[in-house]
Amino acid sequence: AYNNIGAILTKQNKYDEALEYYFKSLKLSEELDDKSAVSNNYYNISEIYAKQGKYKEAIETQQTALKINEEIGYKQGAGDNYSALGSIYTQQGNYDSAIDYLDKALYLYGEMGYKEGMADAHVGIGNTLIAHASSEKRDQALVTYTKALEHFNQGKDLAMEISLTETLKSAYKGLSDTYACMLDYKNALEYQSLYITLKDSL
After folding, report:
1. Where are the beta strands (DSSP E) in the chain?
2. Has this prediction a pTM greater than 0.70?
């Protein structure tokens, strides 16, 4: 119940109140020795810290969640932790660490055949690569943009295969943004149109 209230408060952007409930849920989970729930609470707490820009706390908390999931052998949970760490490092501008964690998430999801996770990881890597390319020299940036396109396309194909509308929308936007950065406006407009059509249908 505490966890559910925390999730509702998070959606309402009431982060401090959400943290209170997540910490209450964490305490209860620890008392019950429910390691999966403990890990999930740390994950949620980390997400709040990231939204607040408290990246150091977000990373430490997410790594605690990861350690628990590795101990109990919960691969999907560990993949979600790797993916979340990748997202935090991207927000921080630490792109090399971000790619490292997102690659680990992709590998774990691939081992499991978990296509939803794989699709999201590909799109996450694509977004990190285009953010990274913006700080690179033109020739190197073009190489990075090309890698981003590969990941967005793989994410798009998986999302289409298993009907992941939100992930497909993100892939279309990523493809449009990447083509625009490469000055390929024909493809940029094509994917922008697909993105808007899908966005308006939701």
Report:
1. none
2. yes
